[in-house]
Amino acid sequence: MECWLKYSEKPSLNFKDRYPEGYRNSHRNVPVIVPWSALRDDPEQILAGRPPLPECRTELHTDYDGDCVRWGLTHHKESAADCCQACLDQAKAAKPGEKKCNIWVYCPSETGCYSPDKYEHKHMECWLKYQDVTVRSQSEISTIHDHQQSIWDLATDSIECPVYM
Q1: What does the alpha-carbon distance between residue 90 and residue 110 come to, in Å, rounded to a whole number?
Q2: Which PANTHER family match (predicted)?
Q3: Tens place of pLDDT for every residue, the chain, 165 residues?
């Protein structure tokens, strides 16, 4: 079981300059994992609280499409690590036939997080999602990425969960 953090604060203006190899795999348009150490060592990218577990892989400014297993508007956690743990716990506790969390989105920004949907996403929102990864390859999974003008491109086919970043 692996869960993925989709760091959700708007990117700093020079993020691409600081992490060009970790920003986007441009030839396939696939997100590249940014190591936790890069987040920890960069004061502009620090996430409050303890670092997430190794199972909690992180991708900055990215969100996967997925069906909600826990609605984030009313599900708040103190840290990204706590949000990931909630995803892991939900997956372990899911009953047979229920969707198990394998994607999570956390809003660390005290001013809220950007989203192209109708909601105003608040600090500490923790969205737990599920996506059937056996249906699509990693490069085909619907994602939202930071692009020009610090907005996310919408590439989703799910109506069960609002797009969130």
Answers
A1: 26
A2: OS02G0761600 PROTEIN (PTHR33344), OS06G0214100 PROTEIN (PTHR33344:SF1)
A3: 545 444 444 444 333 444 444 433 333 333 334 444 444 444 445 566 777 777 787 776 666 678 999 999 999 999 888 999 999 999 999 999 999 999 888 888 888 887 777 888 888 999 999 988 776 544 444 444 433 222 222 223 333 443 333
The residues facing 68 across adjacent strands are 129
CA distance 87 to 79: 13
Q: What are the sequence ranges of the domains in the chain?
A: 3-150
Within its chain, how far is the Cα of 107 from the centroid? 9
115, 84 in Cβ contact below 8 A?
A: no
Q: Dihedral sign, CA of 65, 71, 74, 80?
A: negative
Q: What is the pTM of this model?
A: 0.59
β-pairing, 62-64 with 3-7? unpaired
DSSP strand E in the chain: where? 3-7, 56-60, 62-64, 67-70, 103-106, 126-130, 143-145
* Gap between the Cα atoms of 95 and 109, Å rounded: 33
